[in-house]
Amino acid sequence: MLTVESRHRDFPGLGSRTYLNTAAECIPPGCVGVALHEYWEDKLRGMKGRDGHFARVEACREVAARMIGLQPSEVGFCSCSSEAYNLLASALDLGPTDEVVVTDLDFPAGATPWLTAVRPPKVQLWAASDGALELAALLPLLNERTRLVQVSLVSFYNGFRLDWAPFRDAVRRRAPHALISVDLTQALGRVTLDCADADLLISSTHKWALGIHGGCVVGVPAWRAAQLTTHAGGWFHLTNAFDADRFQRAAAKPGAASFAVGMPNFAAIYALNAALRYLEGVGIEAIARHADPLVAQVHRGLVELGLAPMAPHQPELSTGILAFRHPQTAALNAALEQEDIHVMHHAGRIRIALHGYNTPENVEKLLRVLGTTLARL
């Protein structure tokens, strides 16, 4: 992943492309394809294949726990972050006298379940200033009625990374009844995590974690299991799904296990197990040491081209994402695509994402094409 040789060996899907869009979709390593074939082989065994399926779930639980800093018993899986957050809403069962804090740098999956509730809580918006979330703006939103503070460790929107410890301490101090939920989707697999003491950790699997669609990691520390047990129907998460009293009561497994309400998406878990073990073998710190200087190089290059990054550069807080606005982003994106450079273009914003498989040559090509195109506009 970090050398020319390993990149060509492990990521044949990259080819000659300059792929800078991992924040939307990753390019999986070859071991993920192998794992999917192993799933297929187990599936061909019919019911006997479930031996392999469930063994792979436990293997994935083990490596996922290490990656997010919890114990295997504190990790569960569901299908996507949207499902996880809706299940969180069922666990908390908030009402009009409760308050939830969300940010305008968060992905909709974590921010919207509170708006669609039958008895919606009061939603407080922690708004960014100049692309950053400032603690001074959060403090007035916290009080005795705050039940949840939902954040992303790294913002999908502009790459801003939350300075975890001061944020955590402020919430614990000012909102003693609040739980902290953190979305790791734009962090897991790319940056060294520092938020294992959150009350809930959620991550999709098809971005920096190098897996495929249909998976989501859910982490609930043991001390929060009773509070964060979902009230969803289903069967896989129940302790009495096939007992004699199953039509009189539904007894959910506590904590993270309660988020797996139905049969796991085994294909996604086979893929995630392989992807996380690949990342673990490379080392997240090594990935950050390789990719962070590329992020800094892009940031400097954008500024030199007169393009203003949408979040402040924070050298001490690793992140893989940069974004900028320009009146003619459509023309810029078209020029990039013509040169086989892949970024995210949406609503006047271009987002650039750099993982361990990116190179200085990728950055140089990106900045060269941007500079040439800007000179023509």
Explain what this protein looks like in three dimensions:
- This protein starts with a helix and ends with a helix.
- Helix 2 (30-43) runs antiparallel to helix 8 (266-282), helix 3 crosses helix 8 and helix 9 (284-304) packs parallel to helix 11.
- The strands form three sheets. Strands 2-8-7-6-5-3-4 form a seven-stranded mixed beta sheet, sandwiched between helices. It has a three-stranded antiparallel beta sheet with strand order 9-12-11, covered by helices on one side. A two-stranded parallel ribbon has the order 1-10.
- With 377 residues, it is of the alpha/beta class.
- It has two domains: 4-23 and 283-376, Aspartate Aminotransferase, domain 1 (Alpha-Beta Complex), CATH 3.90.1150.10; 32-280, 3-Layer(aba) Sandwich (Aspartate Aminotransferase, domain 2), CATH 3.40.640.
- The radius of gyration is 21 Å and the shape is globular.
- 47% of the residues are buried.
- It is 36% helix and 14% strand.
- It is built from eleven helices and twelve strands.
